[in-house]
Amino acid sequence: MSARSSQVSVENVSKVHFSLKGEPLLALQDVTFCAENNEFFSIVGPSGCGKTTLLNLLAGFEQPTRGELRVGGELISEPGWERAVVFQEYALFPWYTVRENIRYGLQRKRLPAAEQRRLVDHYVGLVGLRGFESRYPRELSGGMRQRVSIARALAVNPSILLMDEPFGSLDVQTREYMQDELLKIWQREPKTVIFVTHSIDEAIKLSDRIAIMCPRPGRVQEIKRVDFARPRDPTDPAVVRLAAEVKRWLRQQAFAEETEPPGAERALSG
User: Are strands 8-18 and 66-71 parallel, antiparallel or unpaired?
Assistant: First the structure.
């Protein structure tokens, strides 16, 4: 299947950042993958491998040094309503209530007031926040704040949900609960989800496929399909084997990076 026919395609993407001294740093090199309509696609890899840079490129916050990123065949050149982002830090307006935070994007889209109210009510219910509409972010738990972030992203009706370590700051119990809630929401209202995480177990629990990135510079080394039926039991031997395989590969990559000789940092040439 051609990458250009996919919902999301990333084709030979490289990205160079520059230090304050003007020194180039190759963050991503020749990254290529595609994510299909309504697929839950995760990206995992060690810190510093360019996962967040890649998500920023998909969001249109940055542009690649080389290569192309497309949605439905259209080049990504700027942020768009079809691509909503959920960050690790909740990025809520502290002076807005739950209702007002969710309504923010709808106001920016200039939807009629009645439609705004209908959508806010729908997504408040979808993420389980009825009764909290008039609360401010400071009055909510971390998990509840992240639910507001998800509701705000979904309310603008994106076809693609970009999620950057959305549960990374939560405690283990809340994180597992939010994973279950996200799956329920995704199954009720399917979207293409591109989900960045450090957690192999989280990626296996949630994803249809997992892209594994290697460090310095970031490259997609392998894409693994997760064929187990949902909900997935983390103690299932097949799940345990897959998790162990990916973790072993990442440990090997980390060791290879530690033993790489000085001066091996590569820059984009040509």
Answer: antiparallel
Q: What is the pTM of this model?
A: 0.88
pLDDT in tens, 185-209: 999 999 999 999 989 999 999 999 9
- Secondary element (H or E) of residue 68: strand 66-71
pLDDT per residue as tens digits for the range 57-109? 999 999 999 999 999 999 999 999 999 999 887 789 999 999 999 999 999 99
SS3 call for 193: strand
Secondary structure of 157-178 as H, E, C letters: CCCEEEEECCCCCCCHHHHHHH
| Most confident of the following: 4-8, 86-90, 225-229 | 225-229
Residue 170 has which token pair?
């939560």
The answer to whether the CB of 32 falls within 8 A of the CB of 12 is yes
Distance CA 116, CA 127 (A): 17
Maximal C-alpha separation, the chain: 62
Fold of 41-47+81-258: Rossmann fold (3.40.50)
pLDDT of 22: 82
Question: What is the C-alpha separation between 70 and 172, in angstroms, rounded?
Answer: 35
Distance CA 139, CA 127 (A): 17
Where does residue 210 rank: exposed (0-12), middle (13-18), buried (19+ CB within 10 A)?
Answer: buried
Starting at the edge strand found earlier in the chain, the sheet holding 24-35 runs 24-35, 8-18, 66-71, 74-75
